[in-house]
Design a protein that fits this description.
332 residues; alpha/beta; eight-stranded parallel sheet; 10 helices
């Protein structure tokens, strides 16, 4: 039988180990991975390509690598954008997304094998698939999906036979195993990249809208944990971090991947995304949220996506984004 002293000492040891793990995670060496993809988005209204592919280069031009003290910067080549349907898939650029995801996954896995903290800069939200694929090289991984939208389109609520699906609006569904096998079944992975019960969606802004049921309502029937933006705004960032930390402990998740779609920022802070909206966070709140989640000790890497420099021709918002990312992933 365990004595009271043994229980107390054991508890102190666990607490000390948790603090040490959090400190190590907070100060892990960041490797910057540039993922200049726009494959997951539909063409713009004028028929042009979405500009998210240029985000990594623009943010690098504002000193991102130096600001996060990256020990290395790895660059993927920009993949070719296809306007026409591709063979064997009803997801726009589906074959290209799979190939790019496998390339990206290899780099994320390489960074993790080196004991580094991968910081992936997209690109659109389809980069989440490659990030999770690389993270799964370590085994079970939870997903913290910070996004102004649930991104839960899938064959159960969207008819791709009538129009091509856009993976950037499907990334959470695809990551949890819903959709074409092309983007839900991956080499060496049995089952989905992330289980529903190991997934937390934070930031949905339309959940209280009367027409929410037309889009993502079936997310409510899953075991995915949800923290809508209205609750985050009411409770505050510190309380939200504590909620997520409690969820991580409750699920006993040693490792999680953090996905950040910058459209979780309120449109008054960042209109240069494909689907701006309100309510949302400001830059300070997002930086505090990312940093607080990183300090839980379970987050092994993060990706940022959906900034479109074409919607920011004077680069007004790029310095704010760089500062937000640096504050979020940096050691302090």
């Amino acid at each position: 039988m365990m004595t009271r002293r043994e229980t107390f000492v054991g508890g102190m040891a666990v607490a000390a180990a948790s603090r040490a793990l959090a400190a190590m995670a907070d100060c892990a060496r960041p490797v910057l991975i540039l993922a200049p993809s726009n494959l997951g988005l539909r063409p713009n209204g004028d028929g042009s390509e979405p500009g998210t592919w240029a985000a990594p280069a623009v943010l690098m031009g504002f000193g991102l690598a130096k600001r996060i003290a990256a020990v290395a910067t790895w660059r993927l080549a920009r993949p070719a954008y296809a306007y026409e349907p591709q063979a064997g898939t009803r997801i726009r650029n589906g074959n290209g997304i799979r190939a790019f995801s496998i390339e990206l996954g290899a780099l994320v896995s390489k960074a993790l094998a080196k004991g580094s903290f991968p910081v992936v800069i997209g690109g659109d939200c389809s980069i989440l698939l490659g990030c999770l694929l690389g993270a799964r090289s370590l085994g079970r991984v939870g997903l913290i999906h910070v996004d102004g939208h649930s991104d839960f389109f899938h064959p159960g609520n969207y008819d791709t036979s009538r129009s091509l699906g856009a993976a950037a609006g499907m990334d959470l569904a695809l990551a949890t195993g819903r959709g074409e096998p092309l983007l839900t079944q991956w080499p060496g992975i049995g089952g989905p990249l992330a289980k529903d019960e190991d997934t937390l969606q934070l930031g949905e802004r339309n959940a209280l809208d009367p027409d929410f049921g037309k889009y993502y309502a079936d997310v409510l029937t899953t075991r995915i944990t949800r923290l809508i933006i209205q609750n985050v705004r009411t409770e505050g960032i510190d309380a939200t971090i504590a909620r997520v930390a409690g969820w991580i402990r409750g699920r006993r998740l040693a490792r999680t991947w953090l996905h950040v779609d910058l459209d979780v920022l309120d449109e008054s802070s960042l209109p240069a995304v494909d689907s701006p909206g309100s309510p949302g966070l400001d830059y300070d709140e997002l930086a505090r949220l990312v940093h607080g989640l990183k300090r839980t000790g379970s987050v092994l890497g993060v990706n940022f996506s959906i900034y479109d420099p074409d919607r920011d021709p004077d680069r007004r918002y790029a310095p704010w984004i760089v500062d937000c990312i640096a504050r979020g992933v940096g050691c302090r």
